[in-house]
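Researcher: Next entry in the queue.
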Amino acid sequence: MNAPDVKALGKVAVLMGGKSAEREVSLMSGAGVLKALQSRGVDAHAFDPAERELVELKRKGFQRCFIALHGRFGEDGTVQGALELLGIPYTGSGVMASAISIDKVMTKRVWMAEGIPTPQYRLLRRGAYQREEVAKLPDELGLPLIVKPAREGSSIGVAKVQSASDIQAAVDAAAALDADVLCEQFVSGDEVTCPILGTGADARALPVIRIVAPEGNYDYQNKYFTDDTKYLVPCGLPEGEEAAIQELVVKAYRVLGCRGWGRIDVMIDGKTRKPSLLEINTSPGMTGHSLVPMSARASGISYEDLCLQLLLSAALDHEPGTAKA
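Model: Structure for this entry, 325 residues:
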């Protein structure tokens, strides 16, 4: 990419921390992004919305925001809406796309309406379901099955349930984190993820990463705090299979109205080799273990250049066409 005039970007806030269950991960992501942008000469500063009011961004003269927040109050459209009102361009998806994408059930509904494959599911609303409904899940979805909060990330609250007798405990644990609990058919096979950069017709997929976690358990600990999980890029899938997944995730990204960047998690059925899309992250991790930087490196984009490219794509919803893919 041609060297941009970083001074023209003005004063930049890297939003990190926040109030979600993913605060710890967000602080790690934000620290990496801040260092990268500063190394490229950007006038970048840390800003934690859990400790400072967002209106300070306007008062302190910030002209752009890099959103390194994860989960609720950062990836769900709320911060995006505040920045729209303040008139400060920001990285990543806008209000509607962020709000839909954080909600795994709403994401599935949109994908299913567009013919994009995703595992079958049941939505349980806390306080509105009975134990007899939970007992029906193995017949409806099979075993094992996946139980997760509808609006959390980083695998927080996710459980793979092997036995019918364990479902209620998993549902109760997920319900402690979210009013809505998603129960999902388990797809046995290869677990992969694919980042997307850009907006609209210019959106493109980066290399697919295959994830090989200890005992197939890609949980919060194995995501961020161990080196036991293997990330394969090149992914080792047949060339046609990788290309098909890349095409599918770009379509899934576009139908949600996402912009800037994102990452979609996919399971490939071990028998049929058919992919099923699990969820999308519209503010993916940027830590030392994170997958978007890993995939970007495989395509020749350094961490620093990736951060700068994302910052250049900062935009507002009400200014169509301002995002640079």
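Model: The mean pLDDT is 92.
Researcher: Noted, moving on.
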